[in-house]
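From the methods appendix. Each design record in this collection lists the tokenized structure first, followed by the designed amino acid sequence. Records were kept in a plain field format so they could be parsed without special tools. The example shown here is representative of the layout used throughout.

RECORD:
FOLD TOKENS (401 positions):
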């Protein structure tokens, strides 16, 4: 009988270990979908009131419109970026998340919006795609018309997908607010600029900078291609942390479709978004909105560089130093601490000089204030003395009379 392994994940038998094991991914996808379905059936059976609407109404080709999302969670050893990026990245998916022909699209463009409307209404633009784009609005009108919270919520409920010109997508978090960016309908960036043309040397020519009054729009065929490309991608929102969550599927997908999307997203993240690629990946999990995370890949090494690892002798010495009240540091750490001490000493010296000047200025101000108060007191005494003498003289004159 073969020995039973307690490992959470499995690695590929041959080749580099820095790749997903497809059977492991498919196994995790099957288990997750089965759990989500069982929980949905349990809640439906336990509910007292039944929906009067049939379960097969308003379905798309993948299943129910209220299908739960499936998330891929990739954990890194070090932070992915230093600061949050307002413009999300895109990774093409083998199986897009929304292919329903009835899902409406709202396109947010730069000003003026008339050029984009004319492009969408052009005869060469695909009719099946233009029929889905039910609203085209510029940034200025969006900001002016949808300031109240209720109007933003109404706009969010009226459309299933929101696309935004890549030139204005960084302006939208402040305009749309948290009601959009806490939902699954975050605006998807789409490039509406024309492609760069190549000159005789084969080098692409930079387009002329667009003004605020007139911004160039790509031809209808290119705009349609970019919109279809954006609809078939997964969004990657990066923040200064060691976790990246990407929506890779729906509970109405098959296990193979989820596994294919997971493989594409993990490859795209490791090659394009994670610094140092697979070496910086600590773990890959998939989960539902209310489920535990199932691991599909875990790193054997929890460090990124060899300098981050101490030998047994260094580790024991550091433990001994920590036990005796001190702390042993490596050469690189000592250099860093020395630089920090020097910088801290310079800052403290500057702060002492500034504080000394402030104290000196306060003393001068206090001396000046005391002199002014003393002069005012002397002046008031002289006025009172003169008033008393004047009153005393008037009293003598009245007595003589």
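DESIGN:
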């Amino acid at each position: 009988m073969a020995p039973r392994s307690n490992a959470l994940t499995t690695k590929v038998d041959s080749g580099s270990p820095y790749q997903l094991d497809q059977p492991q991914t498919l196994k995790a996808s099957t288990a997750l979908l089965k759990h989500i379905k069982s929980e949905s059936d349990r809640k439906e059976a336990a509910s007292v009131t039944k929906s009067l609407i049939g379960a097969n109404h308003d379905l798309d080709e993948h299943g129910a419109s209220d299908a739960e999302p499936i998330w891929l969670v990739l954990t890194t050893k070090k932070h992915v970026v230093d600061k949050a990026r307002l413009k999300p990245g895109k990774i093409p998916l083998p199986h897009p998340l929304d292919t329903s022909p009835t899902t409406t699209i709202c396109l947010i463009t730069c000003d003026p919006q008339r050029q984009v409307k004319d492009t969408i209404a052009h005869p060469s633009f695909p009719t099946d795609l233009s029929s889905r784009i039910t609203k085209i609005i510029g940034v200025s009108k969006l900001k002016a018309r949808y300031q109240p919270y209720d109007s933003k919520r109404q706009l969010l409920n009226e459309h299933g997908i929101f696309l935004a010109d890549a030139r204005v997508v960084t302006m939208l978090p402040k305009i749309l607010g948290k009601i959009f960016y806490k939902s699954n309908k975050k605006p998807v960036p789409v490039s509406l600029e024309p492609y760069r043309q190549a000159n005789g040397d084969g080098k692409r020519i930079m387009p002329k900078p667009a003004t605020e009054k007139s911004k160039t729009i790509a031809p209808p065929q290119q705009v349609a291609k970019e919109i279809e490309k954006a609809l078939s991608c997964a969004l990657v929102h990066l923040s200064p942390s060691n976790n990246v969550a990407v929506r890779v599927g729906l509970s109405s997908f098959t296990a193979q479709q989820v596994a294919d999307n997971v493989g594409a997203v993990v490859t795209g993240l490791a090659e394009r978004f994670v610094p140092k690629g697979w070496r910086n990946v600590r773990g890959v999990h998939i989960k539902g909105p209310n489920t535990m995370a199932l691991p599909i890949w875990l790193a054997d090494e929890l460090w990124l560089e060899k300098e981050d690892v101490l030998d047994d002798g260094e580790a024991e010495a550091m433990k001994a130093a920590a036990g005796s009240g001190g702390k042993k540091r490596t050469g690189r750490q000592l250099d860093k601490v020395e630089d920090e001490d020097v910088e801290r000493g310079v800052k403290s010296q500057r702060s002492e000089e500034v504080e000394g000047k402030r104290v000196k200025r306060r003393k001068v101000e206090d001396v000046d204030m005391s002199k002014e108060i003393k002069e005012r007191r002397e002046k008031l005494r002289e006025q009172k003395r003169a008033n008393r003498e004047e009153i005393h003289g008037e009293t003598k004159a009245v007595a003589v009379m």
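APPENDIX NOTE: The chain is about 45% helix and 15% strand.
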